[in-house]
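Summary for the lay section of the report: proteins are chains of building blocks that fold into shapes. Here we show the chain for Translational regulator CsrA and then a coded description of the shape we predicted for it.
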Amino acid sequence: MLVLTRKINESIIIGDDVKVTVVEIKGEQVKLGISAPKRISVHREEVYLEIQKENQKAAETMVGIEELNAMWSKKTK
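The coded shape description reads as follows.
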């Protein structure tokens, strides 16, 4: 892990497209501003992990075409 020290209004650049700026420091909280292209999603870690968990659950419940056909034929009988 790279650890950097920054002051208010100082930034770091990630790749060519992402800029992270320290906007405010209040007690133990640091407010960051993130500039990134729309094609790059930016989430807090806990939100990202929840999205990943929901995506995994959705992938596990996906039904194959054969199963869909079987369910459909049961319904139409």
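Put simply, here is one thing we learned. The two ends are 60 Å apart (CA to CA).
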